[in-house]
Design goal:
The protein is an alpha/beta fold and 246 residues long. 51% of the residues lie in helices and 13% in strands. Catalyzes the reversible transfer of the terminal phosphate group between ATP and AMP. Plays an important role in cellular energy homeostasis and in adenine nucleotide metabolism.
Length: 246
């Protein structure tokens, strides 16, 4: 069915792309399966590390927000249900989100395992995720806890300034523009994202601690949590992640 259509089109794929994909799959076939959860407050560096982990271990990256939007757009049965809930202004139920994760795990790109980001946010969600994986004879291997002191996060996030037209980002302390407040290339003014203010960060951190610390405790009891020193520079955090996962 679909495979016939796909193979007919393979002749249109440049050889170089085919070769690199074949080499990638050969490299991947020897990698151990890994099912990972990334937990950490905003600004803790999950977004920097997850693509590195994804490529290194040939995992699929499951960002639940994006997956929900994709399921809604594709009008999958679960997507239709999710849209009904959203249209009513309700939260999408945990069972629905777990169902959408379950669906995503059928994809070839998830064969070697996954990185879950932004889920589970509550202990109930963690339990439902575990039940779903158990039915597949699988389980979460590691929970990477990107631990950073709130004060460091405040400095990281409230120091971020963006050049809206190009997306170039600066940091007053770590990567300042040549002239304060203006873009290096165009000389246009920089702006700060609404989410990047101290007040917004404070409420996001409060919510994070309240909801998520119990999730870390839940997985700690299973002895699968690795606490990372996420305040370190990104390269050092990458090295730490690789040590934990080797």
């Amino acid at each position: 069915m679909a495979t016939g259509a796909a193979s007919a089109n393979l002749e249109d794929v440049p050889s170089l792309d085919l070769m690199s994909e074949l080499l990638r799959r050969m490299k991947c076939s020897s990698k151990p399966d890994k099912r990972l959860i990334l937990i950490g407050p905003p600004g803790s560096g999950k977004g920097t590390q997850s693509p590195i982990i994804k490529d290194e271990y040939c995992l699929c990256h499951l960002a639940t927000g994006d997956m929900l939007r994709a399921a809604v757009a594709a009008k999958t049965p679960l997507g239709v249900k999710a849209k009904e809930a959203m249209d009513k202004g309700e939260l999408v139920s945990d069972d629905l989100v777990v169902g959408i994760i379950d669906e995503a795990l059928q994809k070839p790109s998830c064969q070697k395992g996954f990185i879950l980001d932004g889920f589970p946010r509550t202990v109930v969600q963690a339990q439902k995720l575990d039940e779903m994986l158990e039915k597949k004879g699988a389980k979460v291997d590691k929970v990477l806890n990107f631990a950073v002191d709130d004060l460091i996060l405040e400095e990281r996030i409230t120091g971020r300034w963006i050049h809206p037209a190009s997306g170039r980002s600066y940091h007053t302390k770590f990567a300042p523009p040549k002239v304060p407040g203006v873009d290096d290339v165009t000389g246009e003014p920089l702006i700060q994202r609404k989410d990047d203010t101290a007040a917004v960060l404070k409420s996001r951190l409060e919510a994070f601690h309240k909801q998520t610390e119990p999730v870390i405790d839940y997985y700690s009891k299973k002895s699968i949590v690795a606490n990372l020193h996420a305040e370190k520079p990104p390269k050092e955090v990458t090295a730490e992640v690789q040590k934990v996962l080797s």
